[in-house]
Write a structure and sequence with these properties.
With 151 residues, the chain is an alpha+beta fold. Helices cover 30% and strands 28% of the residues. The chain is built from three helices and seven strands, in the order H-E-E-E-E-H-E-H-E-E. It holds the Pfam family YjgF_endoribonc.
Amino acid sequence: MMLRRLVEQQGLVLPQAPTPVGNYAAAQLAGGLLYISGQLPLRDEELIYQGKLGRDLSVEQGQQAAELCALNLLSQLDRYIANRQLESVVKLEGYINSSDSFVEHAKVLNGASDLLFKVLGASAGHTRIVIGCTSLPLNAPVEIAAVVALQ
């Protein structure tokens, strides 16, 4: 699979895979599953979106942040996939930095899910969980992690 080409066919750019900000792996392969650590809306190591959904950012801005997180997930996948093929995205975890009254977490995470379907088609089918948080690292509005199955 030429992941970079699939991304570019959708008019998108696959960013450089962000480096971990601590003593952990960006991705870990175990038994045919690639576990991808939480990805923030970073581009060139710069946090593009900051703040809380429902206070500082709109749902649409949150979706854009989630899309960038998904592109970073794909970047990590591209970096670690080597000669293997993607079977499917198994699970997507979304963490939303939100105000106490914000209730549209799922709409925000749709930005990531929709981008994955746009790029990967049927291979993007996944389960997911979305959780509202009082804060995230670097004041990011969204963080997403994934588990993908490789052939």
